[in-house]
Amino acid sequence: MLNIVRERLHQGYRTLNYPFKQPVISPRFAGLPSITPTSCASCSAHACTNCCPTGALAITPDGPALDMGRCLFCRACEQVCPEKKIIFTHEHRLAAYTREALIIKGPAPNGFPDESVRPALGEPRRNLSLFARSLKLREVSAGGCMACEADVNVLCTLIYDLGRFGIEYAASPRHADGLLITGPVTENMRLALLDAWEATPDPRIVIAVGTCAISGGTFAESTEGCKGVESVLPEGCVDVYVPGCPPNPWSILDGILSVAWKKAHANR
Question: Is residue 249 part of a domain?
Answer without folding.
Answer: yes
